[in-house]
Amino acid sequence: MSVVSKGVYSKGAGSKSAGALFLLAMIAAPASGSASAQEWAERPAQAQANSNEDVAVTVYGKAEGPKIEGIISALSEDRLRITSAGGVNSVITYDETTEIKVSGGFLGLGGKKAGADSLLTGLPVTVETERWGMELVASEIRFKKDDLHMASMIRNGTAQRFAEHDAAIAKNSAANEALRSRMGDLDKYDVKGTTNVYFDSGKWMLSAQAERDLCAAASVADSLDNALLLVVGYTDSTGSYEVNQELSERRAGRVVNYLQQACGWKPYRMLTPAGMAAADPQGSNDTVEGKAQNRRVAVNILVSKASQGL
Predict the structure, then answer these.
(1) DSSP β-ladder status, 227-233 and 296-304
(2) Pure H helices in the chain
(3) Is 283:289 a contact under the CB 8 Å cutoff?
């Protein structure tokens, strides 16, 4: 059986014997942006001929191809897609014969060889090509050391941000679940009083007035049998959720420390403090006055209903 393949390229096709004519060929990929990176990367490679059959191959001659400059916008093991400044996409094949060079140093002169693993999406490159039939094949890929460093930082930074985002979601979910659990137990208590202390924007330092109010609240709670304190921190709506969550926790922690260290409140009579970020505002976050009311820590005096015979 004889098979004729047209429109494929072969670097150095020689004898017709099956062992020497394993095709290093693939169907040409269109140079338009209509196909997604996944679609062009998953197109099946042309099947190799059976080792017991002769194969007649029509090979188009090699011709010089265009020099292509742009950003690597998609990448697979043997192909890359380059997007130029004008938004034109070119799909280029590369293999072990492609020279990959990185330049650096004074004026970017010279260059040293790099591995294919240095090719990253987002990396600006210059590609010298040859045209093999309908294919563009990279003879040389060049890029700058600084550009590689930046592409690596972007990739690693993006991965890190995703990881941090996932970790923040997990942390917040756990914290919110614990808070819901604690709040769910509050129906077992009567709130005998609440003292609010206020903070400057972005700060968690206590004012002299706040210190006096906290010790006064502790004194009132101490006069009640079996009283507990629940401390909850808040912020106004300025800033991101992550920043406000941390700030509300810092404020609550500062209040707890002062109550225990300066006001003599016993730690075992303190429920676990909570930070609620910008939740449950007392005033409007659209006004300066309202935001000032929302930058607070609430100290709640709780007494068990059971201890009151309720």
Answers:
(1) antiparallel
(2) 37-41, 145-184, 208-222, 241-261, 288-294
(3) yes
Residues found in the chain: 310
Is 90 exceeded by the pLDDT of residue 295?
Answer: yes
Q: What is the pLDDT of residue 155?
A: 56
Cα–Cα distance for residue pair 93/76, rounded to 1 Å: 10
pLDDT higher than 70, residue 120:
yes
Which of 19-23, 181-185, 220-224 is predicted with the least confidence, judged by mean pLDDT?
19-23
Q: Domains of the chain, with CATH numbers?
A: 2-145 (2.40.50.320), 183-308 (3.30.1330.60)
Dump the DSSP string for 23-43: ----PPPPSSSSS-HHHHHTS
Is the model's pLDDT at 40 over the cut of 50? no
Looking up tokens 């679940």 gives 177
- The backbone torsions φ and ψ at residue 132, rounded to the nearest 5 degrees and listed phi first, read -110, 100
* Per-residue pLDDT band at 135 (split at 50, 70, 90): confident
Check if the beta carbon of residue 241 is closer than 8 Å to that of residue 194: no
258 band by pLDDT with thresholds 50, 70 and 90: very high
3-class secondary-structure state, position 183: helix
Bridge partners (DSSP) listed for residue 272: none
Provide the b/e sequence for 165-195 (b: ≥16 CB within 10 Å): eeeeeeeeeeeeeeeeeeeeeeeebbeeeeb
- Tell how strand 189-198 and strand 112-113 pair up: unpaired
Which residues touch 138 (CB under 8 Å, ≥6 apart)?
80, 92, 93, 94, 98, 127, 128, 129
Which of 43-52, 125-134, 157-166, 301-310 has the lowest average pLDDT? 43-52
The continuous run of DSSP H or E covering 75 comes out as: strand 62-75
Residue 35 scores a pLDDT above 80? no
Sheet (strand 227-233) strand order: 189-198, 296-304, 227-233, 274-275
Which helix or strand (DSSP H or E) is residue 90 part of? strand 89-93
